[in-house]
Amino acid sequence: MVITDSFVLINYPKTGSTFARAVLKEVHELQLADRSFTRKITDALHVTSKPFFEELMLPNIKVKHVKRPKDQHGCFCQIPHKYRDKKVTTIIRNPYSRFMSAYTYKWWQKFPPLKAELLEKNFPNFPDLSLDEYVDLMQMAMIHGRLEGKNIEGVGDQTVQFIQMFFKQPEKTLSSLSREYINSEKPFDDIADIHFIQQEDLNNQLANLLTAHGYAKKYSDYAKSKERMNVTEMSEDREKIWTPKALNYIEKNERMIFRIYERAGIHYSKPQL
């Protein structure tokens, strides 16, 4: 989570948040360097404020058993009260490409989302899993990890994580989650007021964010021209990995996320087999 003078950036995993954090930090450093040249003037005017930038490492409240007590992916409910008046933004990504990126990046192999005994029993070939087996892993990880044994039908791992990260009272929402809730208007009342930036146009939209919050044009231009890092865009080979099971899982089980994005005017398409 990044805190600036006027907004908070929540780092949604696998969306380009590493790049965005780096750009914001570099812009902040450029602002400090630029102000050093005008220090005499600002001192004479008794201007002592500096551009504010803080990166918070917060307790991981999303997956209880994972041994990473703190990480950079803090949730809306973890924003310190003194910063609650700031605008909140996050980067989002097509749930299909986000799912595929997570599978091919293989972070789940280094940090398994299930306890060892469950992995050994249900996935004897772990970590060598097909995409369909990865779907099964994510479904089981949702139940035994994020939801701590609660078997909730009709909801996917990305949706549960989305609720944890962006809803005003995530635990209350998850405790009463149902198919009826997912298909109702209630999620639009329970989600926090968050501005979405799309990963697919990250440079331009990050630049627009800085402009909207009063940053000088030189800084928004810097964000617009900055070379991307850790890029995991869908390649032709990755497109060929898709299976009907994986596509149907995302289309059905992550439908609440698609509804929220569509309400914000953002439409994502389904890959073709």
From TrEMBL:
This is Sulfotransferase domain-containing protein. It comes from the Bacteria. InterPro entries: P-loop_NTPase. It comes from Salinimonas profundi.
